[in-house]
Amino acid sequence: MPKEKTRCPWATSDPLYIEYHDREWGLPQHDDRRLFEMLILEGAQAGLSWITILRKRDNYRKAFDDFDGGRIAKYNAKRIESLLRNEGIVRNRLKIEAAVHNARALLAVQKEFGTFDEYIWSFVGGKPRKNAWKLMGEVPSKSRESNAMSKDLTKRGFKFVGSTICYTFMQATGMVNDHITTCFRYR
User: Fold this and answer.
1) Domain spanning 29-177: which CATH class is it, in words?
2) How large is the average pLDDT for residues 66-83?
3) Model pLDDT, residue 4
4) Any idea where the domains of the chain sit in the sequence?
């Protein structure tokens, strides 16, 4: 019988979590659309469990035009009302309006920096930070870099980008490697 892979403890109970952990979480992401998707989904997750958002992710992609910032930036009040009736996503007005607002802020960042990738990765000097946590309890909920990111995103008009949300975004997109050292994905 093959030996089961050792994973981060949070990724052992649900097949969707396992798939996300094994194939995506912590892998460096540089595609503007996927980075924007994760920023919006991390904000949508505020106050909820991540598995709730993962289960709704495909619905989010459909509802939000596969996270095309240019299209989302043009959403009007009628489109927002339509999204509030969409049972496949978290129907929270503030979070939906924040996604539209963030798309407009995204376009401004892309205009200034060329890409969102160039801007967002500057908070870690353009390369992933590799931590060496032995236990999940050692993993912080924020960092100096996530504090700086949150402050700058907020200054640029982004919403739902507190330091904790920024840190989970950094983990998800591989800006920091917070796989525990015994996890097969750590290396």
Assistant:
1) mainly alpha
2) 98
3) 79
4) 29-177
Token pair in block for residue 62: 């459909």
Instruction: Enter the DSSP assignment of 130.
Output: E
Q: In whole angstroms, what is the distance from residue 33 CA to residue 71 CA?
A: 12
Determine what percent of the chain falls in helix, strand and coil, rounding each to the nearest 5: 60, 0, 40
Mean pLDDT, residues 157-166: 98
The DSSP H or E segment spanning 104 is helix 93-113
| Residues classed as catalytic | 20, 42, 50
* 171 closest CA partner among 41, 61, 6, 65: 41
Cβ neighbors of 25 (< 8 A, separation 6 or more) are 11, 171, 172, 179, 185
Long-range contacts of 121-127 (CB under 8 A, 24+ apart): 121/30, 121/175, 123/148, 123/149, 123/152, 123/170, 123/175, 124/170, 124/175, 124/176
Closest among 158, 182, 179, 184 to 106, alpha carbons compared: 158
Alpha-carbon separation of residue 77 from 57, 96, 100, 181 (angstroms): 23, 11, 10, 47
Q: Report the 3 state secondary structure along 22-77.
A: HHCCCCCCCCHHHHHHHHHHHHHHCCCCHHHHHHHHHHHHHHCHHHCHHHHCCCCH
- Whether residue 107 contacts residue 73, with contact meaning beta carbons closer than 8 Å, is answered with yes
pTM score: 0.95
